[in-house]
Specification:
By secondary structure, the chain is an alpha/beta fold. The chain is about 40% helix and about 20% strand. It has 12 helices and 12 strands. The strands form 2 sheets. It has a 7-stranded mixed beta sheet. The structure holds zinc ion.
């Protein structure tokens, strides 16, 4: 244990001391070690949680081949254990002019408001849907009945168990990647949260979801699951437009095969390009450990000094480094298998 602590301290020490630098373009003589180093540089102090999770201790490192949907995000069919509320409940907050956090301490759910209804991004475990999303929106002065679309980043229970309720109660349209719809529809009716009916199916070409004055660019980023979706969308910070790149799946809990890492790597590069083209200066994730959502939504409530940025806003280079971490960590794993 002591050795592990020293190791972790060394990793974070190294991260803290690292000079911020763009990770170099991948070269043909890259090795797993050089890629992990590049990922560490790219992570800097901004993405330590992501680096730790997928480069230092990937979930599928041992004995996970074929584990697939049994990763930590998924709840076994029929299982219904509600953890103590104190471990997960988080208060809802307005974070940007048109973006509201209604997630838990661990998982994010966001309400993107438009002039014609709400786009809800991710839906948490079934036990959190009423206290966080339904009551959270109401507390914030928003009407859950005005949810037009529910975007599911991927079909693991921690992000999709609220989908069926929002579809049946509010007639919201559920948007999911095609392979993740297929996986969802195989669940038994007794699965936690129930099973939504097939609705908006997103193929590899992606799609755009427009509600009123707001369009979300939905990008197919297979890897974490075969149907993982990521998003690019605009928000407003005190009236100023800011573009968000939302990463829809991060952990390596898929079967440990070289081709799966290649697919994951390519999706990170695809998102990096889309984020750059859109001028994204904010990265968001569906797990608070990857974008420090729990802390940031609270910091966003504090008054800011003149010229001080929103706590979520970085710059385009910092956004690129997030996707560099994912691509480099995946490529390091792929190479280590050859
Ligand atoms: Zn997942």
């Amino acid at each position: 244990m002591r050795g592990y602590r020293l190791f972790v301290a060394a990793v974070f020490g190294a991260i803290a001391l690292t000079v911020h630098a763009q990770s170099p373009a991948p070269v043909s003589n890259a090795t797993p070690e050089s890629l992990v180093k590049a990922a560490k540089r790219a992570a800097g102090v901004d993405y330590a949680g992501t680096f730790l999770r997928i480069c230092v201790a990937p979930d599928n490192l041992e004995g996970a081949a074929g584990r697939g949907d049994a990763g930590r995000g998924a709840a076994p069919s029929g299982a219904r254990t509600v953890p103590d509320r104190g471990l997960w409940y988080a208060k809802p907050y307005k974070v940007f002019d048109n973006l509201y956090f209604v997630g838990t301490k661990i998982h994010s759910s966001w309400a993107l408001t438009t002039n014609d209804g709400i786009v809800l991004i991710d839906t948490l475990f079934d036990y959190a849907i009423e206290p966080e999303i339904v009551e959270g929106l109401t507390t914030l002065g928003l009407d859950p009945r005005s949810i037009k679309y529910v975007l599911i980043s991927h079909a693991h229970g921690d992000h999709d168990q609220g989908a069926a309720l929002l579809q049946s109660r509010y007639r919201a349209k559920i948007v999911m990647g095609a392979p993740d719809w297929d996986a969802t529809l195989q669940r038994p009716a007794s699965a936690p949260g129930g099973v939504p009916k097939r609705d908006v199916v997103v193929g590899p070409e992606g799609t755009k979801i427009t509600v009123g004055d707001t369009t979300v660019d939905v990008i197919a980023t297979p890897g974490h699951t075969p149907g993982t979706l990521s998003y690019i969308f605009p928000v407003k910070d005190k009236g100023r437009s800011v573009v968000v790149a939302y990463a829809g799946g991060t952990a390596f809990n898929f079967p440990r095969r070289a081709e799966n890492f290649a697919v994951y790597r390519d999706s990170q590069r695809k998102m990096a390009k889309a984020a750059a083209a859109a001028g994204a200066t904010v990265v968001m994730s569906n797990h608070t450990e990857f974008d420090r959502a729990y802390d940031r939504v609270r910091i966003a409530q504090l008054p800011r000094a003149a010229g001080e940025k929103h706590p979520y806003e970085t710059d385009m280079a910092t956004v690129q480094r997030y996707f560099d971490v994912g691509a480099d960590c995946a490529e390091a794993q792929r190479l280590s298998m050859q």
